[in-house]
Every structure is written in C-alpha cells, then in structure tokens.
Design goal:
- The protein has 245 residues and is mainly beta.
- It has a domain of 142 residues: Sandwich (Immunoglobulin-like).
- The strands form three sheets. A five-stranded mixed barrel has the order 1-2-3-5-4. Strands 6-11-8-7 form a four-stranded mixed sheet, with no helix packed on it. It has a four-stranded mixed sheet with strand order 9-10-12-13.
- A hairpin with a 2-residue loop joins β7 and β8.
- The longest helix is centred in the N-terminal third of the chain and has 5 residues.
Length: 245
C-alpha cells in the first residue's frame, strides 16, 4: 500500500521527539512567552491542575479557555509561566489554549477476533514516548474523505499475558480510502501493566508500518517518578484527532 506523504509530515521526523525546543524560560516570566507540552490533566474537586512529565504540578491562575470540560486525560497545553512555586504547586501558569488528546486504556486481547476488531491497516510511526505513566504515540496514516472515524488501539500480544511488556499498536481504517496522509496523536494509560517493582524494563511496541512489521523498545518503570525527565514540547497535531477513536 502506498503511503501519501506531505513534505511537512516528513519534516516532523527530523525534529526532537515531539516537536520544538522551549520558548518559555522559567527564570523570565513574561506574558509574551509560552511553551507547548503534553501534560496530564488532573481533576481536583470542582477544578483541575496540570502535571508535567517531570512531576511538576502547575496551577492555572488564569485561562483563555474558561469553558474547558476537564477530566483525567492527557492534553496538549500552550501555557505561560506566571510565578515560581506556590503551596502545593511548582508554578502558577496562564493557559493560552488546551486541547485534549485521545486517551485510552490498553484494550483486551480478542484472539481470532483481533484482526477484525482492531484492524491490520498500516501506519507510519513518527514518535513514541512514555511520560507520567502514559505512552504517547504520534503516527501518520492514509485517510479518505468519507468521514469514517478510524480506530487505534494498544493490545496485548498473548492471551495469557505471559509477556505483558510486549504490546501491539493496531489501526482499523474500516475500509476508508487512501487519498492523503495525516497525523494523529494518542495516549495510552499504562497503569494496567504489572508493577515493575522498582526495576526499569523494556517495553516493546509492535507496529505494522508501510515498510512491514517493526518493533520499538522503550524503557519503562511502573513508578512514574523513576521516569521523570524534562518534558518534550510539541507541535499541535490535530489533523486526524477528530477522526480517530
């Protein structure tokens, strides 16, 4: 199957894991500066806060999105630092915009029905990273103009779960056409995986790509604190986000 590639799509593969370098300097708070990151939205009673992949908790002092319908999810956040630490939080911020990322759990193994339910359609894998207990996946796929929503899933590779740290990324296009390529962004909650008991293990993700079957290995520890790193910033990738589930 031919993969329809745009020049801008290929450029993303030469960038850092999820996009551009920082525009925001923690030591220089200015309303004309901003950063864009993938974070976790954490409900807190009648409101919410944001948690970065390095464990920092950010309190939204101000927002340009007052009607934001929050839930426990991953999100792309454009924000501006407003202050240093406040009680219980690393920084106070202003949210310039926030967009939820499709956030899913690991789907069940369905044996002979895996192919019919989860699909066997190929994708181009652009980037994968683990942060705050989630696997963030940026991918590209062929897409048509039929309005059909594609399904993306992360599933075990064995019924008895004897190899729980080997998973498979699946794409179901439901017979949609291949008129153009577009990017998608999805996050998978890894909390259902067995406790690694403080150890860091290899998490293998198998993917059917346009160049055949490939496997990707990532370091994984079930304690998110052991995985903390400075978050990678991203470019918004919403071309396919309204057409996947």
């Amino acid at each position: 199957m031919k993969f329809w590639k745009y020049t801008w799509l290929m450029l993303t593969m030469t960038m850092s894991l999820f996009g551009l370098s920082a525009c925001q300097d923690d030591d220089d708070y200015s309303l004309d500066k901003f950063a864009i990151e993938i974070m976790t939205v954490v409900p807190d009673g009648s409101t919410y806060y944001l948690r970065r992949d390095n464990g920092e908790k950010l309190w939204p002092f101000a927002t340009n999105c007052p009607g934001y319908n929050f839930s426990k999810t991953r999100a792309q956040v454009n924000y501006t630092m407003l202050s240093d630490s406040i009680p219980g939080f690393s920084h106070g911020i202003k949210i310039n915009w926030i967009e939820n990322i499709l956030t899913k759990k690991i789907s069940p193994y369905l044996a002979a029905e895996n192919d019919s339910v989860y699909g066997t359609d190929p994708v181009e894998m652009l980037a994968m990273a683990i942060g705050d207990g989630y696997l963030d996946v940026r991918f590209a796929a062929n897409f048509g103009n039929t309005g059909v929503k594609h399904l993306v899933s992360l599933i075990p590779t064995q019924a008895d779960n004897s190899d729980p740290y080997t998973l498979e990324f699946r794409h179901q296009a439901y017979g949609d056409g291949a008129l153009y390529a577009a990017e998608g962004l999805v996050s998978f909650d890894l909390s259902s995986l067995p406790d690694t008991k403080g150890e860091t293990v290899d998490l293998t993700i198998k993917v059917k790509t346009f160049d055949g079957e490939k496997s990707y290995k990532l370091a994984y520890n079930s304690d998110p604190a052991c995985m903390y790193s400075e978050p990678d910033e991203i470019i918004s990738s919403d071309d396919l986000s309204k057409n996947i589930h």
